[in-house]
């Protein structure tokens, strides 16, 4: 069981749940904490299943490389047969698609089903063709943005230009993480790490456009606290992420790079919670933040990268 939990990246599944949950909350504008509507639950299930499928199929595609670079992983170590992993990965992809179709039926909009279909194509494209190319980080980032859109579409959104800034920004942020982690199994190249860090900064600035874009028209998008306070909170969180990345850039050792990557992935949950805080208030933001417990406990069992 531990090998399977490692294969699906148990800690990271918490981030896959946080994205569609946050997207649904922001576009639905829920402020009172209560039982999440069915469409929201189905969107979260679709996001988690699709992410798990992507992780499993990633290792299926990387078996030959992992036999050299990461022989301790479940497939190259022989803990899980490659054929079994391929079957489970494809089944998880079907579960994700079925859940998204369920969300579309419940919400009476085709949005979630369409997003899930594009997400499945993105997962296939990344694992089969884009991973080792210069387009790999962009495709991976697009998958993260689509995960956000699963929840947003289930709530009938996005409906404003500023709302599109969130999946775009989080997609850029994850593209940066992917580029930053490209050589984490060996000696990372400093220029690649710097490029990854700059992409992460661009992603954080873009996602914050959810708040600063409306300000250009004199509209305060943040409804639950002063705009300056929200931007300060976002900035502090961004700096804390980049400090860890900067340490890895100064000393690009595998352990430091992996720590920076793991920290950047974990921070997705906090970033999602701060975005939810802007619209839904501290109650729902705390609900999203509680997913950190899943990440931290899961990290004690298996590594996130």
Task: Report on this structure.
The protein has helices at residues 2-7, 10-28, 38-61, 63-69, 82-107, 111-130, 136-154, 161-180, 190-207, 209-215, 227-250, 254-280, 282-289, 291-301. The protein has 14 helices and no strands. By secondary structure, the chain is mostly helical.
Query: Quick one: biggest sheet?
Result: none
Residues in helices, as a percent range: over 70%
Shape, per Cα inertia axes: globular
Which structural class do the helices and strands define? mainly alpha
- Average per-residue pLDDT, rounded, comes to 90
Instruction: Return residue spans where pLDDT drops below 50 for at least 5 consecutive residues.
Output: none
Instruction: Give the termini distance in whole angstroms.
Output: 18 Å
Q: Give helix and strand order, one letter per element, not per position.
A: HHHHHHHHHHHHHH
* Strand percentage: under 5%
Q: How many helices?
A: 14
Radius of gyration: 18 Å
Q: How many β strands by DSSP?
A: 0
Which helices and strands appear, and what pairs or packs with what?
Blueprint: H1 2-7, H2 10-28, H3 38-61, H4 63-69, H5 82-107, H6 111-130, H7 136-154, H8 161-180, H9 190-207, H10 209-215, H11 227-250, H12 254-280, H13 282-289, H14 291-301
